[in-house]
Amino acid sequence: MRAKIWNVLAIFGVMTLVGARIDSAEAANIAMGTPYQELRPQLLAEGWKPNTGYGLKLANGKPMHRFPEVLCGMEQCRAKWRDASGAERAIMLNRGGPTDDYRVAQ
What we know:
Blueprint: H1 2-21, H2 36-45, E1 49-50, E2 70-72, E3 76-82, E4 88-94, E5 103-104
Antiparallel strand pairs: 1-3, 2-3, 3-4, 4-5
């Protein structure tokens, strides 16, 4: 019984550490509603690096979504980046329509 409790606590601790490393756009001082297409060059200029292995790729190697660091669900997307210190950051995006820009979500 004690082993199960310790396992649950260990898993919770790991999940807490992972959650602390993935910050919202708010923690990176990114304004909600900002078009991602305008934000991306700013992040690159500030030393952030996109995690291009995060998003899905088609058979020909092109990203499934508009950017290689973005993975989308039905309504929202997540873009994964690494900041200058190497810590992983996630930016939540609203997907919009097929021709609409992704916009930074809450």
